[in-house]
Amino acid sequence: MKIVHNPEAKLISFLDEHYYTFDSKTYYPSSTTILDVYPKGYGYIQWLKSFGVNADQIMKQAGEQGSKIHDAIDRFLKGEEIKWINEDNEINYTVEEWIMLMRFFDFWTKYKPKVIAQEQSLLSEKLGFGGTADLVCEMNNEIWLIDYKSTNGIYKSHELQVASYAMLWNNTVKEHKIQKTGIMWLKALTRGEDKLKKKIQGEGWILKEFDRSYEEAYRFFEHAKEIWYEENPNYKPKNLIYPDSIKLNEKN
User: Fold this and answer.
1) How far apart are CA 60 and CA 66, in angstroms?
2) What is this structure's pTM?
3) Half-sphere exposure of residue 184, counting CA atoms within 13 Å on the CB side?
4) Tell me, what CATH number does 187's domain have?
């Protein structure tokens, strides 16, 4: 949820970030919202079941951790110094989060990608959805679209997600046509670099590529989108607007 404060109007807007819009009148679902209808697979379901009644809390914590990792990487690529401990001697990141950031740093310093865009919001009226690409970069003379994941596994929906972002990019930006897509998985079980030099990976991380092209994978995303629209014919975001202060006076 995005929070916007307008001090002049004395209003706070709580905006549902699952939707994208050009004009605040017509809204389109995000890629990840559409993929909520796509099966996560047996492994994901069993992992979630293992937490029983605590599953919702675990999902919430995982989402917060992913957001912290994304934010730190974004600031790092903008040239900021990312610190484990702040000026008040308080810890900014858990050990697990810091290890994942070190894995991304390892990837970045070894392969030295050239940033084209980061955290790029994309929306296509023609395609009927929006999304935010974590990173578009040039690496090894190829244009990559990369999504960061701190999840315990890589699922088929992740492949469809990056495929949808690539199609969005190609339909809206139209420069630097995406040639490859990948998931920067920061919880991989890899022990080091690929000895055959065929995979981009290091200790605990891998830039996961998929066997088929993103154009082929996008066909399955289209099926999911069709189902989503069938089940949500009159969707609109649950945006909330409230005054930014309240006070009890004698007239109340």
Assistant:
1) 10
2) 0.86
3) 25
4) 3.90.320
